[in-house]
Amino acid sequence: MPWFRQWWGVVLITLFLAAALLAVVMAILIGYYFWEIKQGRGEALKMDFAKQFTAIQGRSAAAQIATRADLEIPGRPYLGAASSSLVVVEFIDYKCPNCLLAEPILNNVINKYGQKIKLIIRDFPVESTHPGATALAEVAACAGVEGRYKVVHDWLYKNQNNLPAYLGQAELDTLSSETGLDLQKLKACQSNTNSEAVRNVRSDYFDGLKFGVRGTPTFYINGVKVEGVISAEGWASIIESQSRAD
Q: Which member of 2, 110, 146, 192 has the lowest number of beta carbons within 10 Å of its beta carbon?
């Protein structure tokens, strides 16, 4: 009996045909994306692939159940009303493009519904995806010690696409001149691994891992986890639902 009629021959031919078909499909896709990039649609494709959520590379361990007391801890920067019944915790990464997408939406939400929401900001710098993100989180946290958290927070997002992996003296000088941050105090804060600001960044990150944060932005809305960018319409619905419940 010819080899191609034996069971192992049939399996071999089937595998070969499947591999050939996969190679053809991959070649077509590569050709398509190459043509799209040549037509100037590279940025649009990048946004399509972003899916509005930047995930951690690899797998994480099984998450522990996070209570609101675990998430809504004191001593973290917040926007909105301190006594609001709607409390949102956001885990962020200053180098995350999807956090940047969420930022203007959140600013508009706070401007419009600031008396109905408390937004607590916690750090989740994913170094494996965004080298240098931890240092930026420390910069913002240390700025909080000087009472400059929000202005530095906004500056880091505003300049996200123009910053190097790690801030050099030129970037620090610009940061200082545009935000009023004291660089000597900043450097002293960052270099002290036992400073409260640096410890808070580290604690936020490990809490995020422990409670199953898989990437950024991740929100906990009155303890309920929501991953990715939430639209302005989505926030309006959440806030209106909470207002009816109150």
A: 2
